[in-house]
Amino acid sequence: MTLCLSFLLYCSYLGAASAYDAAKVLAKKGDAASLRTAAELASIVGEDELSASLALRCAQELLLTRNWVRAQEALQLHESLKGQRLVFCLLELLSKLQEERQPSESKSSSSYNAWSTDTEGPFTERVTAVWRSAFGLDTPEQHQAALQQLQSIQYPSATNNAPSKQLLLHICHDLTLAVLSQQTASWDKAVEALLRAVVRSYDSGNFTVMQDVHSAFLPEGCDHLRDKLGDRQSPAMPAFKSLEAFFIYGRLYELWWSLSRPRPESSVWVRAAHRRTSSTERHQPLGDAGPEAGGPPASPPEPSRPPEPDVGLTEESERVLGACKELFSETHASLQNSRRTVAEVQETLAEMIRQHQKSQLCKSTANGPDTNDPEPEAERSLSSPQSQGSKEAKNEPVSLPELTRRLTEANEKIAKFPESVKTWPFPDVLECCLVLLHIGSQCPGRVTQEMQQQARELLQKYGNTQVYQRHCQTFCT
Fold first, then answer.
1. Cα–Cα distance for residue pair 295/11, rounded to 1 Å
2. How far apart are CA 274 and CA 278, in angstroms?
3. pTM greater than 0.70
4. CB–CB of 365/441 below 8 Å?
């Protein structure tokens, strides 16, 4: 009775005609306490869908203060949010793992649930153990039900300016799907979900998160997943090859950084230089210390550091270098080059439009157009990004028909690639070539001449776009 009276007073205070309206008014405040109260109010009047939505918003708000206990309390009010409880649980365990690796002075104050204190054993086993003990998730049927509940939720692709908490939540949604799929022996779906989580971190430019995912879910690499998939003709094999490539890509960067003394900032990331048309190939720096977005680095990474002849490689490092042959996919290099061409032509066309609009504005403010200038602005000389390989080429005029031709040719090439190649992202092949050649210069004799030659050939063949021309001149001349 007291609770109902309190809610009636809320309605009166808020000037709402009904408890439903009062819940929506309260929710507009946006803070965790108001959202929690609004969710409870909606539940009392039978608006279960609204109540669940508000409870989820409340839990997400509590993530900002890392109050894991209250977040779970908000979610447990609704059976329909049980899948989200699994996601938040995995996120909490992953956050705890990340925090344990930080210096003590860098650790933030967090309100963890009791289940996060056990940090022993493989991460996936810890996750499933908590799900079993805290949520009663034990049978294949229960795992399948949770899987179906979460599969209906779709998040947009990541960008380099996504808030970190939101990014981690979306990544952990994919990771939860991966673990649930493993528990139901749906290994093809597990591989695809794990790849989506890795790609989210890659798209956001967050190398650290990507490596945390690899460390937690692929501590020994990808071989066990290949064994689970079995048949090399499995429909999931293209996704697996992409996942394996990202794993090797991360190890390659760690090896490169380990050879530099002192170790460079993690923002020294070759792929930080340029933008793509596809969100799965957006390249941005990690942190604020990297090159400015939108243009290539002023020079190749580590340009002033001389090779150190005494640098040696461990047996594990040798294995990483040997695995890099999986990154030298000419098919993906060709596709990525065509997409870069499309992006650069579109950028040039956009610049033409901006110049035309600016010209028209100037003419209108000067009492009408200049009748002595019949040439359309869009047809005037404009330096194409793809033609900027030398000082002489920088002023080479490019016409609208020429740009249209390039765009059409590139799109026709893209259309010819198999859907399996276009669907699943792959690390930038030319970027991997550059990093490998840097390692070869730091450790003479450690990278085989065959691999170095293959890297140079790929750079020469597919490095004709603006973002890679400078680097190609460094290594291929």
1. 55
2. 12
3. yes
4. no
